[in-house]
Amino acid sequence: MDNRNQSLKLFVVLAKAYKVVMERAVKDMKQKGLSAAEFSILELLYHKGQTSLQRISERILVTSGTITYTVDKLEAKGYLKRVSCPKDRRVTYAEMTEAGKELFDQLFPAHADTIESLMDGLTLEEKATATDLLKKLGYHAQKH
Fold it and tell me: What is the CATH number of the domain that holds 84?
């Protein structure tokens, strides 16, 4: 198989694998009572702490409008709060509340188990290799 055809095959296989894995992960998130965007924002805050809304948008790859809407919903549920930046009034941060931390302390271990089971089709070594290769592919694609 030539380079072009192998590249096209890789693209299709990568897209299909991503679709299936994400469908299963999103199903798990929804079973926990959160949309994928809500879960992703809470997960980011859980692991990274207070984060600007702009940075959240960049990290979870959704539009600023979606971030605003989702943050509004999470704030109404009491899982996060907005914090103004004291140095730049244009910047607003999201910060997890105690209720949000308690919720995620309960939800995240089971979600991590689900993700682990989705990835169990690969050995530990294959996971490391796939991670390295996908990073390399992503960095290269960013240059174009």
Answer: 1.10.10.10
